[in-house]
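Field notebook, page 326. I keep forgetting to write these up properly, so this time I am using the form the group agreed on. The chain and the ligand, 6-O-phosphono-beta-D-fructofuranose, are recorded exactly as supplied. Prediction of the bound pose follows.
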Amino acid sequence: MEAKVKRIGVLTSGGDAPGMNAAIRAVVRTAVNLGIECVGIRRGWNGLIHSDFIPMNSDSVSHILDQGGTILYTARSEEFMTPQGREKALATCKLLGLDGIIAIGGDGTFHGALELSRLGIPVVGIPATIDNDLGCSNYTIGFDTACNTAVSCIDKLRDTMQSHERCSLVEVMGRRAGYLALYVGIAVGATAVLIPERGLNFQRDVVERIQESRIAGNTHYMIVVAEGAGSAVEIGKQIHQSLDIEPRVTVLGHIQRGGSPTVRDRETASRMGYAAVQAMAAGNGSCVIGTQQGSLEAIPIEKALTMTKKLQMERYAVMEAMHNHA
Ligand code: F6P
């Protein structure tokens, strides 16, 4: 049966996430298998505005499954936020004969997707961000790799903190969400984890945790701070003033966005990329492929953008319960 959709574009937008390349590969190869041509739009929505594209085929996505970053480059486009910018993007879609776009990214990417779909171009979104902060999907591509990267850094840090009997504060990314911090905190056996979902009470969440840990016999403390909960540098200064110990602060930063994707990210990205093209080919454009309890679902973009999810606070209880008590 001849596909109605003949040519699609694929782009990555916003902060990159390990597994984006695996998603691009899945999109391109699924499209090729369905007889749909695929064009790579480079540098996110900017590429659509400025006609920055490359033709793609099965070979163009060879040997990228294990690569971090994105071969299509990425950007946060200010211009696409304006009606004029979106009109230019629409003109590029028409010029290239694109029947739809697959957009891989996070919240900002999907807001852009909604606007473009309102102009008549179907857009299917694939959730990819190390923050895992999208309400429409209980998992986002890149989260697992970022957690593993942070854990491996903190394991190394612990060696020296333990030897010097120090207090270490590690700031991890996550934007306004505490997923990364809490999962990592559980995995490294942190003394305390500070997350925006709980709100910071310095006495309860920091001072008392360190005191309890000391009474239990520990002489080094590992505190994981979600960037959305506050600045690790500032919290370090407060610890110094309150407890007269000299903490060392490490801001992990963009290292968390790099590295070869884990199995979970490669596998999820491959399934999402496949499902995105299937949805587009079936005429179900303008949706986001979210995962709920392990199954993929095509959710209309408008609805996807209104969905919320809550960090399970049972995880916080687990982290606290693992603490060494006197
Ligand atoms: O959304 C991904 C993310 O890495 C956040 O965790 C972080 O707050 C932000 O992007 C950093 O953005 P930039 O790459 O612009 O510094």
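OBSERVATIONS:
- The longest strand covers residues 7-12.
- The CA atoms of residues 240 and 246 lie 5 Å apart.
FOLLOW-UP: compare against the apo run.
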